[in-house]
Design a protein that fits this description.
Structural class: alpha/beta
Strand content: 5-15%
Helix content: 55-70%
Order of helices and strands: HEHEHEHEEH
CATH architecture: 3-Layer(aba) Sandwich
Strand order of the largest sheet: 3-2-1-4-5
CATH class: Alpha Beta
Distance between the termini: 33 Å
Number of domains: 1
CATH topology: Pyruvate Kinase, Chain: A, domain 1
Length: 294
């Protein structure tokens, strides 16, 4: 049976843990809201790009880009997003499970002989995917690309994927990440990035404005310039959603840890008070017993 001193020490330790998890929850919540704001700021850029693409496709000109070329898939790439930091519950585990399911589905739809190269984003995911590498599944690490990458780093990463596709090194690029819905809802999502397909556009699709346009130098040249910008917008969205989802998962994990710490703290305090009351009662009985004997 624990002594009063031991219980007091455990109470202090749990109380400290409760404060730490509470502080971490507040920090993660602030980071999550920051990522949410970034998503809102990115939306007008993507919407405008899609509007331009819609008007180009609605024109009489024929628009073509090598990024639209669908070909037989012998080697494909999967960019899977995870976290660089821990303490986010089963966030990385859930994404890894979806990756395994995705690979199995691809083997069924594309054939067992398809080669798959995985580009992990985040050190936790990089460590996990290393375990499934075999003769048909390889893992490539891109220096400088992690879950916190923004701006020029994202642009360079997208340019690298485009270049590999155009050069024929890979025949298709898929994205696998956790889509951010709310602080309590994040859903795994897989989508095709290259070659560009209709499903890559937003829920409303490309929009067209019925207005006369004069394209300079020509519609196809503009289309070939705008499409890489669209891919960049998509990748920026995914990186930002990944950060928001990670922080949301961490908020929920810290909330759960905080709740458990509070329950344990209440139990320890109750046990401490019982033991303390028992000790006081024992001392009183000894005093009363001594008075009776005298």
């Amino acid at each position: 049976m624990a002594t009063l001193r031991e219980l007091k020490g455990r109470i202090g330790s749990v109380a400290s843990s409760e404060k730490i998890t509470g502080a971490m929850k507040m920090i993660s919540s602030a980071k999550m809201h920051k990522a949410e704001q970034s998503l809102k700021r990115l939306l007008p850029f993507r919407t405008q790009i899609e509007s331009i693409i819609g008007n180009l496709l609605a024109s009489d000109a024929k628009c073509y880009s090598p990024l639209l070329e669908a070909r037989e898939v012998n080697k494909m790439a999967i960019v899977v997003f995870g976290s660089d930091d821990g303490l986010c519950g089963a966030y990385n585990v859930n994404i890894f499970k979806q990756l395994i399911a995705r690979i199995n589905d691809l083997k069924v739809s594309l054939g067992e002989n398809v080669s798959i190269v995985i580009y992990p984003v985040g050190s936790k995911m990089a460590k996990a995917v290393h375990k499934i590498a075999d003769s048909r599944i390889s893992v490539e690490y891109v220096p400088g690309v992690d879950s916190k990458t923004t701006g020029a780093g994202v642009r360079d990463f997208v340019d690298m994927l485009q270049r590999k596709f155009i050069d024929g090194e890979i025949d298709r690029v898929d994205l696998l990440y956790m889509s951010f819905k709310s602080v309590s809802r994040q859903r795994p999502k897989a989508e095709q990035l290259i070659p560009v397909v209709d499903s890559a556009f937003s829920a409303n699709g490309v929009t067209e404005n019925v207005k006369p346009y004069i394209f300079e130098p020509n519609a196809n040249a503009i289309f070939r310039s705008v499409l890489p910008m669209f891919l960049l917008a998509v990748m920026q969205d995914v990186f930002t959603e990944n950060r928001a989802s990670e922080q949301a998962a961490r908020v929920m994990a810290m909330q759960s840890a905080n709740d458990n710490a509070k329950k344990l703290l209440d139990q320890l305090r109750l046990e401490y008070n019982k033991l303390r009351q028992q000790s006081i009662t024992t001392e009183l009985l000894d005093i009363l017993g001594g008075q009776v004997q005298s």
